[in-house]
Amino acid sequence: MAGRYVGRSVLRTEDVALTTGHGRYTDDIGAGGATPALEAAFVRSPHAHARILDIDVTDALDVPGVVAVWTHEDLPGPAALPLPVLIPHPALHAPRTGYALAPHTVHHVGEAVVMVVAENRYLAEDAAARIRVEYEILPVVVGIPAARAAIAAVHQDVPDNIAAHLVQEVGDVDRAMAAAPRVLELELAIERSCSMPLEGKAVHARWDADDESLRMYSSTQTSTSVRAAVAAKLELPLSKVEVIAPDVGGGFGVKIMHPWPEEILVPLAARRLGRAVKWTEDRREHFISSAHERGQEHRVRVGFDHTGRVLALNVRFWHDNGAFTPYGIICPIVTSTQLLGPYKPGAYRVEFTSLYTNTVIVTPYRGAGRPQGVFVMERTLDRIAAELGLDRTAVRRANFIQPDEFPYDQGLTFQDGRPLIYDSGNYPAQLDQLCELVGWDDFPRLRAEAVAQGRMIGIGLGCYVEGTGPGPYEGAHVTVQTDGTVEVSVGLTSQGQGHRTVFAQIAADELGVPIDRVRVTGGDTRRFGHAVGTFASRAAVMSGSAVVLAARAAKAKALTVAADALECALEDLDVVDGLVVMAGNPAVSMPLGSVAVLSNPLRYAFDEAAKAATQFARPADPDVPPVPEGTQPGLEGKEYYSPPRSTFASGMHAAVVEIDRDTSEITILRYCVVHDCGTLINPMIVAGQVHGGVAQGIGGALYETLAYDEHGQLQNASLMDFLMPYVSEIPVLELGHTTTPSPLNPLGIKGAGEAGVIPVPAVLASAVEDAVGFPITAMPLNPSLLFDLRTRHARAGATAAHGVARSDEGVTR
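The line above is the sequence of Xanthine dehydrogenase family protein; the predicted structure tokens follow.
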């Protein structure tokens, strides 16, 4: 599919503004205006679980500059009702969501209780500090063990704390397990973490009283969905609500959640007060009132043969969904289905329970349930290899889906409600390339040299498949202007992925125009009103495909109009460098801008170019109307792409690590990736996505965890204590690609946005385990934890050795 631009590392057009301080973020909207926006601040619960007995706002009203104070009692109509369950599911039998402002009970630290609006944020914060809220403390549930034991109820009407329970099974697992020559059991866990974008959530809203309409800016991954949610909650016609996502300083999944309470409350305040109102999240608010992810505990039973072939796999896991389930159970569904990776177990049963705890809600975070699933599968295969004394790559080869088996139906239902059918891939070739890249076969020699030097090194690998581009649809609008420029509008928002560049590459190739003549806009409901959102590595698959279809429609119309004007056959024309030209006779040509003029029959000439489209510019055919039936004026195409199911990208990572013998510090010496996302639209941007994902994965594997105490207080809610890797901790990434185009879309593309992050915990656990010589069963793994594990392992070994020695002396162990 490579063309003049698709397949090339075109420099990103977004970067000049973003890297020179000329980005325009939500907090910048209206800055420096004659009438600055009012600003909001929130009183948030200091308790993880408590009943609200009384709220006294009297002292806050005395603060000069305070304009309004709202509690739940002040919210009108639907705004006072619970927030929606965005993705209902039959297995989510006890869904619970919060409110814009808590009415009677708070369920986690950070839940909003009161909103204050003042002339600026400083005054609003001062007033909020004067509000007195009287609470009755209730029992707190923190962590999966406490939720499973139901030591208390997070919601009084859900006494077992179970929000959802789901089982999927393929084949007869019990029979296959009983017949398996070997059986292993494992317990594995990944702790809770969260995304940490440079820009937190932010909302700016203003009300037009004359038009009775709302314009809203939000740092969101889904402007069209925020628009629909706000219209419903404020009882406004959809046509009277505009939502714009300006530059967004990172999302990583946390900004796909909607509507946030603030996205309801800020526009409500703007409407009531007749003034622009804004709110920008501070860092502590992000920790305690946005969203987390990752926390799961798994129990695995696997049956296998002497080659390492998995004959039966039974996985039971528990998912901590926090205090509410506004985003449904997408994360554990993804874990349960993507756990299988590039493998084909003989029989598979997966059962999960999603549990309420008095902690921040859980919604997708880059990877969205996949890192947990990959960790489980890859740790299981490593354990099988250790039990059988086989190379870890041999066990994977024994279980791979083969290239001639695609499309491959895993027999499960994926997160989009459609069958889990892999569209394409070549996993054996990927592993071959990875082993060559990292020097897998040469590593024993390197280890021997390291041991001789007193160093402790290890190598690990991990394989994964990533479902990308889920539906239901995305659209694009391509318009050729009369000056020959091309405008492309999509509904998707961008948080730094390079959408403007990638979609311009696609449109330029399809239309035959120079890329610098293409302008791309997204995330603005004024320009494109129907879209789903930016998540699940779907932008290139969904909107990219829609841009292809819309550009082709615009081109088809251009050739039709040009054929009429040039009095030649349609099939003889093409568009080259912005000119419609005749094959074999390039002297017969017409600029694409002129074709755009002719596509819009005019009565009045506004400039010289418009004259060509007026009624006396050329002889008229009395039998043909100026605008033929079935067409419309203008040179444009608007199309939607809706796939039959998700595409499935894949990848394999390997790492070499060194463990400091004294401190247990983990240093990554090498990190290698082989990735398959189908057709590469822009290899440089794909590489950037993988690089960023690996960095985020390293953070999640070795640094980032959220530490709650038994009272539901987050102990490390600041960047002083929530550790993220610096560039000095991220190794140089060695990247290779395989390409198996998807048959499901016109470009043959698969998603790449989450690829880097997914297998990193599994890869590093494998490498560390290889270095230290004992099982690694939980992540993240920081030096302190590893030091303790090494100490316990050494003590256990010494005790065992002492017992053997005493036994040899005739003393009972």
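Note on the example: The chain is about 30% helix and 25% strand. The longest helix spans residues 539-566.
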